[in-house]
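Late entry, evening session. Most of the bench is empty. Finally got around to the prediction I had been postponing all week. Sequence below, unchanged from the version circulated by S.P.
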Amino acid sequence: MSPPLRTSDRLRRGAAVAIIAIVSVLLVIGVTLLPLLTPVYTRTVAGLFNPQERADLSRERSLEMAEEVRRFVTDPDSETLPSVVDDREGFDASSVAHLADVRDVMISARVATGVAAGVLAIAIMLLLARKEWRVLGAGLRGGGYMIIGAVLLLGVAGIVDFDGLFAGFHGIFFESGTWTFPSGSLLIQLFPEQFWAVSAALWAALIAVGAGSLWWLGGYALAHEGPHEGTRA
């Protein structure tokens, strides 16, 4: 039978579990966002809602402009968006300013994902070196449970009031009034509400898969727990 852990050891392990859970959640959120930022995704999903019928542009030109927006918000070296597109109003100053804010958020998310990956990798190596499988497993499963709970809660909120959820999400990252545009703006015509509803549902599904992966990996770690784990200081 393993001797009881000292208070300091319990606190250290509790902190380790919390850190692993939090960084694993951040990592899953960041990694699952990547497929939604690819050219293939933008072209495919934007094309589902026939942007040419709203934008007064050809289908190919509409999808080309959608790709320009995607590139602008993901590439800090991207050129600014055109104010005129084929003799119609393009992206005005307020649209470009909002998309620049989006780009700042995307860059920050990319950095946070990289930091989370690094912290998680270091934590895993340290715990494996100490053979603390239970701590690792509890942290990974804790992250999985946190994600599942959040996905369920946000899913219900989205079904009940998607507009409210959409506004609340934007309110976290952007100042009020900087992310709303008239229905006739090119940005709204290229990316209507349906685009964001599909994207939110797909992102939630990918995050749920990530949560399942964390849960499975946590179970794998717990299954490898040694009979005397907990004796190390």
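Two things to note before I forget:
The chain has one domain: 7-223.
The CA atoms of residues 73 and 99 lie 6 Å apart.
Will write this up properly tomorrow.
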